[in-house]
Write a structure and sequence with these properties.
Chain lengths: 418, 225
């Protein structure tokens, strides 16, 4: 088969029908552009919302829960070993919130190849004093560097810097708390711990997560300050938060750590089950809209090629009479649709990118994300690869039927009919 | 090597629409190299049908067709296309030039498909043919800028480009006035005489036929003389 000649003929036929060709290509361009901007936007949104959750929830959290002891004394009794024992009015046992042997656990976790990073944390309820009123709240004592790398905490700080927490007795309070108590950066806040210790902390920042219930009670300090407040030693911690290389491993590893360290462990998937569903649905919606747009464009190409074939019956007949085979003719028309598909597709990628840039600068102000000012976009190159593949596949499929029809044209019928 | 360019053995063809009808009845004939043959007969006698069978474009028949001693019956579409490309030049009643290309490129197309010569050589050769037909100054014009006679001359040049064994014409003068018909005939005559080109023309133009070397007369699907 003479490729160059087939290309040349296809190209000339397109040039003779430039207007229709452009319209067909614009259909593809529009489909791809919409697909790209839609998927980029949806994924940007997904990333943002995922981030919202991921930045608040570790992949795995190890902690001590207050709950009844699992092995009650009666189980140890030889006498009742074979009986079914009912025990009523069991009271939960407070084993203390502290994680025992925390330093060893952290060392072991840090050596684990599946673990990306480990961040210890001290969480304690406190009372904030504002004049004569007491407001209950929570203090998170964090390991500043680890917390920042795991949860990008600085994204949620409205005023001040996370590094300010390195000063002794400093605190970042939630936005709701700050409004309620009319506090601002530089003020001093008085707190009481559950054990009755009184302390004064200097406000170095205001944080805003975006969920009012949390912003109304949460405040953050360094782990050492928190340990001092509680009068505990430097190995005292209530939570160990883990980030993994592969989030899919979380449920399995949570189970493993639960038995290994005799701690409670909760994984990301369990903590955010409903959230995953939302992400998946958004992805499905964006892909299906994109595919529908392309199918519509495909019908456009199909129509135009069909028309072109009726118009070019004479040309097909003479090409066949002078020695072009059915498959040559088929390739001419496949090539026609491929040219439309590739040109339309490439322009589609280009416009998709432009649209993405435009959406990217549209203001998007939300209380939940103080650092986000415009709509989020995800410029993952894989969307562009999928886009152009879709374009080529759709146009090829749309071109296939007209091309097969053209290849089966009987030249005798055309020539005799004249 | 035999001198036969084209031979048919017991060629029979039916039309099935609207009802089964025998168009060609057991036709056996042959055409020798260098002959200028015309096929005449009334409308519906099967002369065009015979031509399309001989052209290998219509493959639905019984019997045998041999082109240059080679049996082409039952060959594949691709092979038949190659045989047509190499051995047969067509001139139809309608010119069938591609409107996207200029006259020169139209002439070159079958040659480009054959791919034996480079593009430059082909262009030169096409120009030569156009020159012999007095069309070289129109070579770069599009078909729609040419007159009927001019278009037919371009079509003849296209039929010649691959130096075919045989030129087949289906009413090549059917659409032309007297002057142009005569010119086309003269071209054919010249080709037959000077270049020893084999030509087979189906026509109902008795005057045209009478000037050819050999006349095949058909009636009701049979050759009667």
């Amino acid at each position: 088969m003479n490729h160059r000649l087939v290309q040349n003929i296809a190209f000339h036929m397109l040039r003779a029908r430039l207007k229709q060709t452009i319209i067909a290509a614009v259909g593809v361009t529009f489909g791809i552009a919409m697909f790209i901007s839609l998927v980029s936007f949806m994924n940007g949104m997904n990333d943002l919302l995922d981030g919202l959750m991921l930045n608040r929830t570790p992949h795995i959290r190890l902690y001590n829960e207050i709950k009844p002891v699992e092995s009650q004394p009666v189980i140890l009794s030889e006498e009742y070993k074979n009986n079914i024992n009912f025990i009523s009015s069991i009271k939960p046992k407070d084993r203390g919130k502290a994680i025992y042997n925390s330093q060893t656990i952290i060392d072991v976790l840090k050596k684990d190849k599946r673990v990306l990073d480990v961040a210890p944390k001290v969480v304690t309820p406190v009372f904030f004093h504002s004049g004569t009123i007491e407001i209950s709240g929570v203090i998170n004592g964090i390991a500043i560097a680890a917390e920042e790398s795991l949860f990008k905490f600085s994204d949620y700080i409205r005023e001040g810097k996370i590094t300010d927490l390195e000063q002794n007795n400093s605190i970042i309070i939630g936005a709701g708390l700050a409004t309620k108590m009319m506090l601002s950066v530089g003020d001093v806040i008085k707190i009481t711990t559950p054990k009755g210790n009184l302390a004064s902390l200097k406000i170095v920042g205001i944080s805003q997560i975006g969920i009012a219930e949390i912003d109304d009670v949460m405040s953050t300090t360094s782990i050492s300050t928190a340990q001092k407040l509680l009068g505990e030693a430097t190995n005292y911690m209530t939570d160990i938060q883990l980030k993994l290389h592969d989030i899919e491993m979380a449920p399995q590893m949570a189970k493993e750590f639960r038995s290994k360290f005799e701690l409670d462990a909760i994984d990301y998937q369990t903590a955010n089950a409903q959230f995953e569903t939302g992400t998946r649905i958004r992805t499905i919606i964006s892909y299906s809209v994109g595919v529908v747009l392309l199918i519509v464009a495909g019908f456009g190409i199909y129509n135009i090629l069909n028309m072109l074939i009726y118009e070019k019956m004479d040309s097909i007949a003479i090409l066949k009479a002078t020695g072009f085979s059915g498959s040559d003719v088929k390739w001419i028309f496949l090539l026609l649709s491929l040219i439309i598909g590739v040109t339309g597709g490439v322009f589609g990628l280009f416009f998709g990118f432009i649209f993405s840039r435009i959406i990217d600068v549209i203001p998007f102000v939300t209380a939940s994300l103080p650092t986000v000012k415009t709509y989020p976009m995800n410029y993952n190159p894989i969307f562009y690869v999928i886009g152009i593949t879709f374009a080529i596949v759709t146009t090829l499929v749309a071109g296939l039927f007209p091309a097969l029809k053209a290849s089966k044209v009987d030249p005798v019928e055309i020539i005799r009919g004249k | 090597m035999s001198n036969k360019v084209l031979e048919t053995i017991g060629l029979t063809k039916y039309f099935y629409e609207p009802s089964k009808f025998k168009v060609l009845d057991n036709i056996s004939m042959s055409i020798d190299h260098g002959e200028f043959v015309s096929v005449v007969g009334k409308s519906g006698c099967g002369k065009s049908t015979l031509l399309y069978l001989l052209s290998t474009m219509d493959t639905d028949y019984e019997g045998k067709i041999l082109i240059h001693e080679e049996d082409v019956t039952g060959k594949k579409d691709v092979d038949l296309a190659r045989i047509r490309n190499e051995n047969i030049g067509f001139v139809f009643q309608f010119h069938y030039l591609l409107s996207e290309y200029n006259a020169l490129k139209n002439v070159m197309l079958p040659g480009l498909k054959l791919g034996k010569l480079s593009e430059e050589e082909l262009e030169h050769q096409a120009m030569e043919y156009l020159k012999t037909l007095g069309m070289h100054d129109q070579a770069l014009k599009r078909p729609r800028q040419l007159s009927g006679g001019q278009k037919q001359r371009v079509a003849i040049a296209r039929a010649l480009i691959n130096n075919p064994l045989i030129i087949m014409g289906d009413e090549p003068t059917g659409n032309l006035d007297k002057k142009n018909s005569d010119m086309v005939f003269d071209i054919f005559k010249q080709l037959a005489q000077e270049h020893n080109q084999t030509i087979l023309v189906v026509t109902h133009d008795v005057e045209f036929a009478s000037k050819t070397n050999r006349i095949i007369t058909m009636e009701d699907g049979m050759i009667i003389s």
